[in-house]
């Protein structure tokens, strides 16, 4: 039986595997994707200091390090069910059963769609799918595209698609409605983009960001040009909304309308932008399915992307011998996921070895590193992450107290 | 935007209009919407549309999304062949 099984070979899972294996644990990592690295594989962007973040290289580095540390890694394995026994965990996969004493879920996040008429046509994909096709499989999803949804992820990937030789015709908003919510309201979108000052892709946005400290976004959006502003030559049109994806048996274009600052359609402004594929950028949500079937309790935290399994700062859940790390605990950058993975790996090793002082010390440093990485994070998917995380840790303490009381009563 | 033309659950082809009508008629939870319309019960097991269903229903009922997960996950959480379920594994037979 394994000491530790990790589900997910992304930044969090690999870092955890290395940390635990270096402490002498017998570790295996499984992943359903054919390649090791998780979402690191698709990432390629320039940081403010001019350096490129090459996720694929980082993934390969972690992969090699894990192998050297003695970690067994297996790809193309999908987990279908998990059960708990007295001795540990039984994990049922597409390739057979795996038994382990401790389990770490590092399954990452999943993309949320924004359904609009025509989104089921061939040629429509999530922004992440286009990224995987281009950067991982080296296949161009098409030649011309429209991106629906203006957020940090779509801006970064738009530039990656451009580097793949794709003409990104425009980034527009989804039409306002119960599904798109704030993502369909120009004023709200600009407000969220303005918070990304250090990442803000163009001088204009950067200026808007600086001004944003003094100027209300509802004022700034009035001056946002209808034609949009350009980022790497790609028009970002915050006052244009996609109402329908056109095509008979494949995408041919997107029908758009001009909208006011609060998302209202301006009559007679319909237009069609031709494109041979369309990307929908609806944002990310923690992938909670496995945590749910093993019986974790959850907290809904909007800032973290949705339902997250309740856990503490040691990445321990309220199910014994079960840990979580990475985007399953809330949507953040790969660097935060890596730092969290190290914490989880050390916390598991510490539990395994009876909380030896030197591991506890390393763990304290690793937890400090998570906080530091978060504070310095260039990609803040949502504001208020640190505060949101505190509510999850607080819930863990409350649940723990409640469970102790229940035990003492019975 | 035409609610009839907006497909929410791709596997079972359930439109936004059907979901809206169901909530208006029965003023129900997302779980009840799932049971009445089959939205989220198709081949993918709701992997694509569950968040959308939750969002629409919470919005229509003017309620906040709760900490408890409304549309429960049930194993197998990935489509799997009977062979693999029974412990028979073949090369090139991923689930």
Mean pLDDT of chain B: 89
Low-confidence stretches of chain A: none
Shape of chain A: globular
CATH uppermost class of chain B? Mainly Alpha
The proportion of residues in beta strands of chain B is 5-15%
Helix content of chain B: 25-40%
Give the count of helical stretches of chain B: 4
What is the CA-based Rg of chain B, rounded? Answer: 16 Å
- Can you name the CATH architecture of chain B? Orthogonal Bundle
C-alpha termini separation of chain B: 37 Å
Question: What does it look like?
Answer:
The complex is a heterodimer of chains A (410) and B (95). By secondary structure, chain A is an alpha/beta fold. Chain A has two domains: 2-110 and 284-409, FAD/NAD(P)-binding domain (3-Layer(bba) Sandwich), CATH 3.50.50.60; 113-280, FAD/NAD(P)-binding domain. Chain A contains eleven helices and 21 strands. The longest helix of chain A is centred in the C-terminal third of the chain and has 25 residues, at 385-409. Chain B is mainly alpha-helical and 95 residues long. Chain B has helices spanning 16-26, 30-37, 50-60, 82-85; strands at residues 7-9, 14-15. In chain B, strands 1-2 form a two-stranded antiparallel ribbon. In chain B, α1 (16-26) crosses α3 (50-60). Chain B is elongated, with a radius of gyration of 16 Å. Chain A: InterPro entries: FAD/NAD-bd_sf, FAD/NAD-binding_dom, Metab_Enz_Cyan_OpOx_G3PDH. Chain A: This is FAD-binding protein.
Q: What is the element layout, followed by pairings?
A:
The complex is a heterodimer of chains A (410) and B (95).
Chain A lengths: L1 E6 L3 H12 L4 E4 L13 E3 L5 E3 H14 L3 E3 L4 E6 L4 E5 L2 E10 L3 E3 L12 E3 H10 L7 E5 L3 H12 L3 E8 L11 H9 L8 H10 L4 H4 L8 E3 L2 E13 L6 E6 L12 E4 L2 E4 L3 E3 L2 H5 L4 E4 L4 E4 L12 E3 L9 H19 L4 H20 L8 H25 L1
Helix pairs in contact in A: 1-2, 1-9, 3-4, 9-10
Chain B lengths: L6 E3 L4 E2 H11 L3 H8 L12 H11 L21 H4 L10
Antiparallel strand pairs in B: 1-2
